[in-house]
Amino acid sequence: MIKIENVSRFYKVGNEKLTVLDDVSLTIEKGEFVAIVGPSGSGKSTLMNMIGGLDKPSKGAVIIEGEDVSKLKDKKMSKFRNEKIGFVFQSFNLEASLTALENVMMPLMIAGKPDREMKDRASSMLQSLGMGDRMKHKPTELSGGQRQRVSIARALVNNPKIILADEPTGNLDSKSGKAVMEILTDFKNQGYTIVMVTHNNQEAQYADRVIRIKDGKVEE
């Protein structure tokens, strides 16, 4: 499903070259739940951004379903990302002025789906995550755990092939965090490929496989 081939990412800072990823290679299979673990500044979020097309490698290739997405132009990359990848962020990234339902409808709106289909699919996804009675609430009227459920519903509403979760429980209490991890595990069991970035070793145990990154390299 995902193949990272000799990927490096570096930035110029004044006269110095800052290396964030250093010749990383790895493969993630279809239907696998992989946790990328490492300390702050290790390069794990940069690696996830490469997979999601939010950043491009300085060297190497990011191949998803046989296509090198690092070579895609911005417009094609946006379309690819909207169709194939669902993002779940630590900070939820919900639009404060929109209801839960409207937030979940956003990827469908970008894809140009008809109004009725957007509402039906978004409400169905929210109901499946136990948010049926909160669809008209705005993010400020929801708890952290509820906001993350809305974020997950938005990530899944377009039926993507890959879910990228960046510290998905980082802003949640332990009970809400456990519920989110169980939701991700359930979707993995339905055949989704999940890549999760975390510094929490306990949460990493939910994954099929753990990739440890340190100083921009795969440690184990």
TrEMBL record:
<dbReference type="GO" id="GO:0005524">
    <property type="term" value="F:ATP binding"/>
</dbReference>
<dbReference type="GO" id="GO:0005886">
    <property type="term" value="C:plasma membrane"/>
</dbReference>
<dbReference type="InterPro" id="IPR027417">
    <property type="entry name" value="P-loop_NTPase"/>
</dbReference>
<dbReference type="InterPro" id="IPR015854">
    <property type="entry name" value="ABC_transpr_LolD-like"/>
</dbReference>
<dbReference type="GO" id="GO:0022857">
    <property type="term" value="F:transmembrane transporter activity"/>
</dbReference>
<dbReference type="GO" id="GO:0016887">
    <property type="term" value="F:ATP hydrolysis activity"/>
</dbReference>
<dbReference type="InterPro" id="IPR017911">
    <property type="entry name" value="MacB-like_ATP-bd"/>
</dbReference>
<dbReference type="InterPro" id="IPR003439">
    <property type="entry name" value="ABC_transporter-like_ATP-bd"/>
</dbReference>
<keyword id="KW-0813">Transport</keyword>
<dbReference type="InterPro" id="IPR003593">
    <property type="entry name" value="AAA+_ATPase"/>
</dbReference>
<keyword id="KW-0067">ATP-binding</keyword>
<dbReference type="GO" id="GO:0098796">
    <property type="term" value="C:membrane protein complex"/>
</dbReference>
<dbReference type="InterPro" id="IPR017871">
    <property type="entry name" value="ABC_transporter-like_CS"/>
</dbReference>
<feature type="domain" description="ABC transporter">
    <location>
        <begin position="2"/>
        <end position="220"/>
    </location>
</feature>
<dbReference type="Pfam" id="PF00005">
    <property type="entry name" value="ABC_tran"/>
</dbReference>
<protein>
    <submittedName>
        <fullName>Putative ABC transport system ATP-binding protein</fullName>
    </submittedName>
</protein>
<keyword id="KW-0547">Nucleotide-binding</keyword>
